[in-house]
Task: structure prediction
Amino acid sequence: MSCAASWRRRRPPRRKLDPPVETCHTRSIRVAAKVSSMKIIICGAGQVGWQIARHLSGEQNDVTVVDNNPDLVRQATDTLDVQGIAGHASYPDVLDRAGARDADMIIAATHSDEVNMVTCQVAHSVFAVPRKIARLRAQSYLDAIYSDLYRRDHMPIDVVISPEREVAEAALRRLSTPAAFDNQTFMGGKVQLLGIGLDEDCPVLNTPLKQLTDLFSTLRSLVVGVRRGGVLFAPEPGDQLFAGDEIYVVSHRDDTDRALDIFGKAVKRQERVVILGGGNVGLAVARALEASELRIRVKMIEKNRRCAEFAADALDRTIVLNGDGMSRELLAEATIHKADSVLCVTDDDKTNLLAAVRAKQAGCGMAICLVNDPSLQTLMKPLAIDAFINPRATTVSSILRHIRHGRVRGVYSIGDAEAEVIEAQVLSTSPISGQLIREIDFPEGALVGAVEKNGKVIRPTGATRIEEGDIVVVFALAADVPAVQRLFQVSIDFF
Result:
């Protein structure tokens, strides 16, 4: 098993007083970075908008935040390197003051679907903004039969992001790999990123990662990140793993079960699932589970009677119970003690947390919570909650996937924007094209997790040559994302 990058480039001792040596290669990268800098307007300075602004401004883009709440605008301009405009994002004069006439992209992420849609329309019709992204929540806007609505001659939105759909997909990934607290797919599902918590009975504790590479040499898995004491870092080959660590592993899909077993996690198929919350997220998950070939038995608890009746009519095999998911009697009626998992996806964080704790106490095997407030995520471990879903992180990851430079095919934001896992295709003029991995000047907080060549996923080593057309999955700490992204960008001569 390639548990750590034993091939990681040996770094010379740091000399803080020496000026950096600028070579032709580094100059070309800097030119490329300047060429690809974008002017972006972000409408909505809430959690999602602020996080997107944080990512993009940190990559030296020209970012302007627009919100009708002056306090949110002030908070963004005080904490980030962005400009701010207070006003309604859909007003043409407000967009004009935000610089829409020469903007490369507008991201409409206010709390109103209609404002987001009108903002994109104004940006297109009045200012001819090339790329428009809108966050839409109402399922009616997302129905496939109305997809023509978003054509350029109708409502010109290039990318529609649905937070509910993103959260539902994240919940299904958690259920598919219950032993992992985090799960994301790359390379068309061929590769998975797994978040695994290490317990005292983990069989590979206190073993240097380079030794694990030798012990499990045929396994296509790689430890790319370790969170210890609340701090996330990219491990070195000599680093050991300890009980209490949370690790991130990039693994080939076919090797996932074996990788989990090596880290002391039993692989168990889900047979009974209880869903707390019959809104858009809960309904989408239940529909997907009903359509699954695994024939999972699903029960749903929904407090709102009208919503419960709607869910009961929309689902075929799911038993829908109307009542309070905090009730011991109702949980007993849902046979929570026999459930393999409970998925708490109401619109109230505290309800989700407390219901999950009560379900675990009643004998449920695993608890997964939807948590909007990031400050509550530190309670997961003390409350023995197995996994959580952060809607902001899933939405931010989805938006970032559509705005990265070069041939970036996928982006996943880890934790509270602590790191990113980036899937990108190598172009002929990318700085890393034609180089061996050990020769590439990756920053210290970055590791290559997987490489796909001609449709086949291989385990990366120092002797792996990165070539044009290859697809590479890279883990990078937040501070190192811009440097990693530049390695995949085209140079000036590409244009």
Q: What stands out?
A: The radius of gyration is 23 Å.
